Amino acid sequence: MMEFFQSLADWYMNNMNYVTIMLLMALESTFVPLPSEIVIPPAAWKAASGDLNIFLVVLFATIGALIGASFNYFLSKWLGRAIVYSFADSKVGHMFLLSRQKVEDAEAYFVRHGKSSTFIGRLIPGIRHLISIPAGLAKMNFKQFILFTAIGSTLWHAILAALSYFLYSQKDLFEKYMKELSYLLLFAGICFVVFLVIRYIKKKD
């Protein structure tokens, strides 16, 4: 699976345009575990360098998200809860990092927050690409589903794109202090490992 995503990332970097952004974001919004964080930032950097338009990056990313979310919505609506959960429990479902617990979490979130969950859920990692499944199971009004999904997706993509665009403008600063940043990251990594070891020792005691 990791080799597949690595080859997909290489292909994306060599063929980045509005259509590939849309296709990958459509894939990201299904049950395939493809993070938008590896699709939008490179596109935003390319926009910052003048090769793409940042607003079109956000637009086509959102169109792709709507396509993928609609796929999940209608598939869940037509198949029903029993088949969706059976798929989540299957080896194929596990291959896509899907599980009964993840679907249950998404459904519980939808029940707690109602229709607005299709908006809020688009901003939450782990829920974002699955929130359309309980919407389909609940047979949520499709127009409302599209509206809330579009708003949430646009906001998320705009945040990712804006942050990446800003970081590109600071690349000279990053390059200037790259050595110091490397030492800082190394120190943070050592501290994290020490923390894990201490926590493990305390649990054994």
Structural class: mainly alpha
Average pLDDT number: 76
The ordered string of helix (H) and strand (E) elements is HHHHHHHHHHHH
Total beta-strand segments:
0
How many structural domains? 2
Biggest β-sheet, characterized? Answer: none
Distance between the termini: 38 Å
Strand content: under 5%
* Low-confidence runs of at least 5 consecutive residues: none
Overall geometric form: globular
The gyration radius over C-alpha positions equals 19 Å
Count of runs of 4 or more consecutive helical residues? 12
Helix percent band: over 70%
How are the SSEs placed, and which strands pair?
Layout: H1 2-14, H2 18-28, H3 40-48, H4 54-79, H5 81-89, H6 91-95, H7 100-113, H8 117-120, H9 132-137, H10 142-169, H11 171-176, H12 178-204
